[in-house]
């Protein structure tokens, strides 16, 4: 089983509730093993299986929740 890490740089989080909502949304995706979102740094660190879930799907979750994706880092 493959495993990759991704950092998503997010704009628009104001509090722990925001980061928690994003973490919950990401964890609902099949193939996402863990999602640590910290609003003070504006970053989400995700561990995922690239055979199951695509980066675009994870970014879509962030956008659907109303936040802006500023970039990603492998
Ligand atoms: Cu908030």
Automatic annotation (TrEMBL):
Transmembrane listed as a keyword: no
Superkingdom in the source lineage: Archaea
PROSITE patterns hit by this protein: HMA_1, HMA_2
Keyword Metal-binding found: yes
Residue ranges occupied by any HMA domain in the UniProt entry: 4-70
GO molecular function, one term: metal ion binding
Keywords, comma-separated and alphabetical: Metal-binding
Listed name of the protein: Heavy metal transport/detoxification protein
PANTHER family per record: P-TYPE CATION-TRANSPORTING ATPASE
InterPro entries: Heavy-metal-associated_CS, HMA_dom, HMA_dom_sf
CDD domains per the UniProt record, alphabetical: HMA (cd00371)
